[in-house]
Amino acid sequence: MEGGLEKIANLEYSMVRTREETTEETKGKAPVFTVPLENIENLREGENAHFEARITPADDPKLKVEWYWNGRPLKAGSRFRTFCDFGFVILEISPVYPEDSGEYSCRAINEYGEAVTTATMKIQGKRSIIMESQLPKGMEGTIDRIAELEGLGSRSTEFVPDDDTGKPPEFITSPFDMVIGENALAHFECRLQPINDPSMRVDWFHNGKALWAGSRIKTINDFGFVILEIAGCYQRDSGLYTCKATNKHGEATVSCKLQVKGRQGIVMEPQLPSNFRTGTESLQKLEETMHKREELVTEDEQPNPPKFTEEIKDNLDVPEGGPIHFDCRVEPVGDPTMRIEWFYNGHVMATGSRVHQLNDFGFIALDVDYIYARDSGEYTCRATNKWGTATTSAKVTCKGKHNIVYESQLPEGMTSEKLKELERGRIPEAPKVVEEVFGPPKFTTQITSVTVDEAEAVRFECQVEPKTDPSLRVEWYRNGKPLPSGHRYRNIFDMGFVSLDILYVYGEDSGEYVCRAINNYGEDRTRATVSCKKLPTILLQNQVPRGMKRSDALTQMEATIKKYTSEVHLTEDDLFDPDRKQPPRFVTQIKEQLTLTEMAVTKFECQLAPVGDPNMKVEWFFNGKPLLHKNRFQPIYDFGYVAMNFGWVYPEDSGEYVCRATNLYGKDETRAIIKVSGKPGIVYDSQLPAHMQSIDRIREMEASWQVVPDEVDPDAKPRTKPVFVSKLEPQTVEEGDPARFCVRVTGHPRPRVMWLINGHTVVHGSRYKLTNDGMFHLDVPKTRQYDTGKVEVIARNSVGESIATTELKVVARSDDYRNVLKNSPRPWYDYELAAYQKERQENELEKVFDERKQVLSEQSSHTLKGVEHLKPKQYKPPTPDWQQNVKAKKSEDYYNKLQTLETEQLLKETNLRRDTHQYAIPGEKVVSSSQAKGMAQSYEENLQEKTSTTEVQAAPPKGIAQPSESSVHGREVHMNKQQQVQKEIQGDLEITRKITATETTEVEHKGTIQERVVQGPVKPAKAPVFTKKIQPCRVFENEQAKFEVEFEGEPNPTVKWYRESFPIQNSPDLQIHTFSGKSILIIRQVFVEDSAVFSCVAENRGGTAKCSANLVVEERRRAGKGGIQPPSFVTTIQSTTVATGQLARFDAKVTGTRPLDVYWLKNGMKIQPSIKFKMLEEDSVHTLLIIEPFAEDSGRYECVAVNAAGEARCDGDCIVQSPSKPEKPTTPGSEKAPHIVEQLKSQTVEEGSKVIFRCRVDGKPTPTARWMRGENFVKPSRYFQMSRQGEYYQLVISEAFPEDEGTYKCVAENKLGSIQTSAQLKVRPIENLDAPPTITALKDVSVTEGMPAQFKTTVTGKVKATSVQWFREGQLIPETPDFQMIFDGNSAVLLIGTTYEEDSGIFTVRVTSSTGQVESSAKLTVKSKD
Known about the structure:
Blueprint: H1 4-16, E1 32-35, E2 40-44, E3 49-56, E4 64-69, E5 72-73, E6 80-85, E7 88-93, E8 102-110, E9 113-124, H2 142-150, E10 170-171, E11 178-181, E12 186-193, E13 201-206, E14 209-210, E15 217-222, E16 225-230, E17 239-247, E18 250-261, H3 279-291, E19 307-310, E20 315-319, E21 324-331, E22 339-344, E23 347-348, E24 355-360, E25 363-368, E26 377-385, E27 388-399, H4 416-424, E28 442-445, E29 450-453, E30 458-465, E31 473-478, E32 481-482, E33 489-494, E34 497-502, E35 511-519, E36 522-533, H5 550-562, E37 585-586, E38 593-597, E39 602-609, E40 617-622, E41 625-626, E42 633-638, E43 641-646, E44 655-663, E45 666-677, H6 694-705, E46 720-724, E47 731-734, E48 739-743, E49 745-748, E50 752-757, E51 760-761, E52 769-772, E53 776-780, E54 789-796, E55 801-811, H7 829-859, H8 881-889, H9 892-915, H10 929-953, E56 964-986, E57 989-1011, E58 1022-1028, E59 1033-1036, E60 1041-1050, E61 1054-1059, E62 1062-1064, E63 1070-1075, E64 1078-1083, E65 1092-1100, E66 1103-1114, E67 1128-1131, E68 1136-1139, E69 1144-1151, E70 1157-1162, ...
Parallel strand pairs: 2-9, 11-18, 20-27, 29-36, 38-45, 47-55, 59-66, 68-75, 77-84, 86-93
Antiparallel strand pairs: 1-3, 3-7, 4-5, 4-8, 6-7, 8-9, 10-12, 12-16, 13-14, 13-17, 15-16, 17-18, 19-21, 21-25, 22-23, 22-26, 24-25, 26-27, 28-30, 30-34, 31-32, 31-35, 33-34, 35-36, 37-39, 39-43, 40-41, 40-44, 42-43, 44-45, 46-49, 48-53, 50-51, 50-54, 52-53, 54-55, 56-57, 56-75, 57-66, 58-60, ...
């Protein structure tokens, strides 16, 4: 706004010019804080601080506001945000730290004076560092000594010799050179004087460089001693170490050498001391030393037997799995002969991982981490020394858990001894072995020496006797060491035949090989040598045989390439010639492949020149990165032929591939793209060969298995009810983390298990996972806030049922630090906020002057001069060409009259409904956000009227004001149905779906006003009002959902969000962003189970406003053949009614795999684009515009979307209301007065129903009709629609209410006369709307086991049922393949696919609607097969 300040000054001057008495008062005012700053106490570190004050004058452009902290100007920073506008002064600090505590002052200055307000803030810091001493009591002075030794404190000067002052450093002793082994400790020590020189500095150097500090290096300089210790020395630590001492009088150095001898990687020698010949001797000597007891008693020692000063105490009623603890004290302390022993029920207590013992300075303790019932009994501690023994005892009792089965689970008649005997089997008798005497081994044939080239194979063979000796073994040695094991060495020893195969040899395999044969009687050896000639690692020489001509090389090249492809594009010029310096050149390029399917075989191939270049390097890249080696990829580079073979491809292989060739003279590239379409993850088609009837045979076999046996097995397991043998543990998790519950259930027949969370049945899907692997698991991969509550698991079979319950608690994440980050990135909603604030600032000026003009006009009896030009700001958006053409055809006066007529009718109906408190506007009346705005305005006016009435009645005669209260309640409900028909093609199958989605929006306002007469200024209160209501949201699974509202209120309302009745807290998954006048709820990732009603509640002291809408999460259907998704309408077209000449518009949003063909139909005929019909598309939203429609354009319009996978359709009606037309002049002889052919008929309807009054009138010229209610004319509006078709005249009331009752007349007249007909309309209040729905009674069903069963009921009622539930014996039945539930609005059916005998019982259906619920029950009898 350029020149905005001058405009403000001129406008203000023109407004106050007529009131001279106020001129002197507004000349100059010093700033005054009407509301001071408030102190902030007990704020924790990391939270947000908010200071707020109010100041006058609010419109002083020269007012300057400054902030101070502890008397100093507040520094600018990312954590500090200030605001000064409209009389509000705000300081926000986010986050706060303890150092922010102090006094904050706000100083306001203008040219007339200044004002200051002050407040204090105290921040409680988080104790991350413990500053207090952790030393035990009695050692408080030790910290000073430690500080003195470390050089942090003041040194004692009483030991400083006077004669040492002023001397340069001098080393009295020098460190010794050291030779140590690797990983040993190196210790260098020397002495230095003067001792207590505070300016002394000691540095160590290694090979002339400063010694690095580290965990292995420790230096000491204290009391004249200089020490260097290096722990865990390595070979790299060897070298010269120098110590340099420096003070202000000079310096001195001393050096020493360190040599570290490295060790082998593996120590092969024994590590026993030299005086121990074997490990057994060392263990014996150690045990003798540790357990040696002195038998001689010193004469001067006094007998002192053990004595317990404190006894151990009993541990009673300890739950199984809990810990137990014993502790006691014994004297004498420090007796080396004292031995402590523990006993359990008189036996020495066994040690284990559960048991921990302690004996230290006379304190004895025994801890058992967890106990079992068998651990109950008496525990005894015995202390023994050379003078005597003492004992102390205590008892332990354990309460066992009842969920552990101690009884044997073996079948009847089977015992553990019998089972062991069966497992052991028969023990065969040991055959008698006759020992045979063999002689020493002898090689009958010898191994022979060989000489081979590298990579060739070597084989040694020989024979040895005696070949039948079982103790004979063969060993191989190379160069005196055992031959290492590996895949290259394969040796055989079978029936005296010995062989060794080396698959391929290296140069290091050369040497002497020895084969050694050993048995119990001796040994024999045979020897041979292997000589291996090494080959160069890389062959850089040309491999073309000498003397080969270029023609021969060309022939060999062509023969090689023809092995792979039939076309040869390389010529003789493409052969490698070192003198030509040829750079790489791709003679042919690799080709793109865009139609591949998953698991297909493909390859890239090209031809590269020069051929035979030894320095040529070929590389492959995928999407700019080197192609990783996989067993699916096989690269080829052979005589100029370059290829990459793909064994099979996946969709993730789609992308750009580059083949790059490089040599000494340059490089070249060729590139191509692969696109791979995926196959469905699950194969639904039969995999049996064609014409194979095996599936029928399989079904016959399965049917034969289900036949009940004629005789009952006597060893059959008895029938038992379900029992939970493991406890269901409660869970406390952070939001977004997984939660898991698992139970184990026993019972016969095998029970069925059902899970419930907060009373709702859990169904297996993307939000909840139900698995059974012997134990039943409920997994919640990603928890939400509203998962908090009760978790139940029900196990049921034909014998009975069991229920286990626990709690799930979902807490806020502890690692969400977004609100305390100093340099956090700017959130996305700041951009929306900036745009919103910019728009508000642009409009705020006009809004202020509009309000001021209205106030001044009400206060003044005459017209203000200079104010006439203050009009609301008008925005003129750009007008399309087609709209300009329409406006050019109609005069401006026509549109003004039409707008005035509609506005008057709308105001009349609004006031009528407001007077009778009929704020419910159901159905199609709520068509845009303007309706909510109009209702909010009506609600505010009603508040003002109630307030003024209450003030008059509240004044008591004695002058003492008593509190009074008034309230206003408004509610608005909007229901929108979106219907579409989808057709999906899957092969030869066509699937048709009829989809109806219902979107519900609800806005509710509650205002409560309490008045009390007080002295002084009173802050105004304005109840919250939603200026932009919440809109229903329909999204697909795993997408983001967003709800947004805008509101007004004074003071600023607090906003809360709810899912059903559960309050939503701000979290990473459920983000709530609330700022001035606007609040947004974002659900980052939604699932089908998240579908529910979400509500926003705004509340302040003036009242409460509530706005609700439903979230519908649709499951993504599996893509059709080739990954193609059929079309689906996200938003369908809606019926519309327009006047002749006004614009009619249909919008539909469609999704699906492109290309999509979208076209429009009218009454089944395709619409072609023309001047009247315009078709637009933007962001998948398809729009049909009907420009300047007439009555003949009325009809049913349909939008059709088609692609290769199917089609989708949605339709709506367009009604064009035609105004009355002037009649043509008629022939004088044929004219006649109006005559009623068909009278109006009286009607009685229910509230909210549609009413149509119709009559037939004949006359010439054609009569014009006027409709009246009582003595008042009925004006056309969106609720009252008049039309004429030929001789028929009709009045349509879209929704009738009790105030619409009365006598309706149709007055038809022409120039020859007039006539009228009338009828009565009566509207019955919807008294029975609160009645619950009615259903037909269920009938008992009796079937044979294995047959299907069906229960059916018909639902009727004024209000549509919202849910249908089925129960068996009072327990909810989840929908499974065995139990299928169908509800189409009128009929509810339960289908049981296969019945079992345990399914018998009472089945109940419960139908619920918004007005109540009703139930009906019947009995199912399943007869067993005889």
